[in-house]
């Protein structure tokens, strides 16, 4: 196995075992917080619904990455047969970014609601900050790692582009070694 695969597995484990559980706890705390439950603020239900939407979108992202994205990334490292069918990581990562965009929209809306002085709890502010800073930083590191692997790791690069059908090894299309002229 490529050393980059081992490093990637460490990053995946960090997300799944440390980052995501901590965010899930912050969501739970923000929803269960006594100050929110007993608040007389007129927009209490709006905030509760917003945090619930954030929770549902976050759970969807975690499940998607855990079941499909992370195993697919590791599969790209481990592929060793030319005829092996590989996932299109570009499409998988694009859907991931779409889910993350929705999460960030919810987090920004929550942060805006908290600018109104009627809220007497910090649990929701901690949650918004966790997504707007910590989550964003972790995901930027993840995407930087993927980008670096496509540039510096030959096994990942070859199989990443093979999964996107951009690899021509057994194609009928002419390549630089072909004697066929266009």
Please give a handful of descriptors for the protein shown.
elongated; 6 helices; mainly alpha; 182 residues
Give a description of the structure:
The protein has helices at 3-32, 34-37, 44-78, 89-113, 123-152, 154-163. The two termini are 39 Å apart. The chain has 6 helices and no strands. With 182 residues, the protein is mainly alpha-helical. The chain has one domain (3-78, 86-163).
Q: Calculate the mean pLDDT score and round it.
A: 83
The rounded Rg comes to 21 Å
Instruction: Report strand %.
Output: under 5%
Total beta strands: 0
Please summarize the sheet with the most strands: none
Instruction: Please tell me what the overall shape is.
Output: elongated
Alpha-beta classification: mainly alpha
> Order of helices and strands, N to C?
HHHHHH
Proportion in helices = over 70%
Report the span from N to C terminus: 39 Å
- In DSSP terms (H or I, runs of 4 or more residues), the helix count works out at 6
Q: Pick out the low-confidence regions.
A: 166-182
Count of spatially separate domains: 1
